[in-house]
Amino acid sequence: MSTELIEQKLALPAESDTSSSAESGSQQADSIERVRTLQGSASDPQEPLEIPVLTDKVVNVATVPQRSPLRYPGGKTWLVPQIRKWLKDLEFRPRIMVEPFAGGGIASLTAVMEGLVERAILCERDPEIANFWFCALEHSELLATRVECFNLTEENVAEVFNSHSLSRMDLAFQTLLKNRINRGGILAKGASRMKKGENGNGLRSRWYPKTIAERIRAIGSVSGQIQFFQGDGIGLIDLCQLEASAGFFVDPPYTAAGKRAGSRLYEYNEIDHSLLFERMSVVHGAFLMTYDENKDVIDLARHWDFHLAKVPMKNTHHAVQYELLITSHELHT
After folding, report:
1. Which residues pair with 227 in a beta bridge?
2. Pairing between β-strand 246-250 and β-strand 96-99 as defined by DSSP bridges
3. Which of 9, 249, 298, 319 pairs as cysteine with 107 (C-beta 3.0–4.6 A)?
4. Residue ranges in 162-256 assigned as alpha helix (H)
5. Rounded to whole angstroms, what are the CA distances from 143 to 154, 219, 222, 293?
6. With 90 as the cut, is the pLDDT of residue 4 above it?
7. Is the dihedral of CA 294, 83, 329, 55 positive or negative?
8. H or E element: which one contains 322?
9. CB of 114 within 8 A of CB of 85?
């Protein structure tokens, strides 16, 4: 399928106001109701399911290669060891990684850079993030140089954010800067900047010019193996559903069952989770989905006879919690 046709099929309606809180609430309510409908359609009562825990060891993210320039909220660097194992344990070697909710793109970057797949197709709805990826892939040297040459001061930050009539490169740098100096890397409206930061370093706490530039150049070195599209993630799943050699890594905003985290962290957070599960049930390749642990998501996975597992991680408050892994193929410890 041609790039132009994919872009056309993934395009979002121009008139839709995806940031509308009223629309968001309506979509979430509809999604939850569809979950309940699916639960009620089961032919037999379902017994409580004991979900296997793959490991009791929390991954130290400092031991995992940091390949994305973005500090993406809800990022999955900590899950990289499980993503590697999932790809290697499949009965076939996937040729393509499909990542319909790209965000920081760590899964696809890892898979391509470590030779676990031949190429990757990513999709992101947020226009700021999508534009960043376009520039990182198509103009990596220009973006990396811009990072290296920027003198991070309060005055220079204000100048970047107050600029108008920006080029795509200007906007990409603005997005990256905002991501690096906002608390938690949050780009959604209302996000605040770091003040004291790490060890009292303020805005410089997460601004490492040399390291960030190196990551951008590394992305440029594999840009021929990565296709990126702005648009609807479920639409990308539909387009790739017949690709038997694909591995789908699906990490949607965590807004199922009325969860607020995804709504707070991401500007573009609306998604019909029951529809997503329905679409994943017909893909010909393998998939790995991630969700926070809640009953509605578990019921959806059971309705479609997906495999479930849990892995521990540390949240922003350093407390250990478990996340769900939902897969087409059973995961092993």
Report:
1. 121
2. parallel
3. 249
4. 168-181, 209-221, 233-240
5. 21, 11, 15, 38
6. no
7. negative
8. strand 320-327
9. no
Distance CA 128, CA 134 (A): 10
* Residue 170 token pair: 């200007």
Tokens of 311: 């892995």
**Cα–Cα dist 188/19, whole Å:** 10
Provide φ and ψ at 314, rounded to 5°: -105, 135
Q: Locate 224 and state its tokens.
A: 């021929």
pTM for this structure? 0.82
Residues whose CB is less than 8 angstroms from the CB of residue 51 and which lie 6 or more positions away in sequence, other chains included: 298, 308, 309, 310, 324
Dist. CA 199–CA 231, nearest whole Å: 39
CB 50 within 8 A of CB 291: no
Strand order in the sheet with 286-292: 226-230, 119-124, 96-99, 246-250, 286-292, 320-327, 307-314
Of 322, 230, 246, residue with least CA distance to 283: 246
For residue 223, the 8-state DSSP code is: G
What token pair was written down for 175?
Answer: 């997005």
**Rounded Cα–Cα distance for residues 234 and 221 (Å):** 28
- Residue type at position 137: L
d(CA 175, CA 104): 12
- What are the tens digits of pLDDT across the range 112-165? 999 999 999 999 999 999 999 999 999 999 999 999 999 999 899 889 988 887
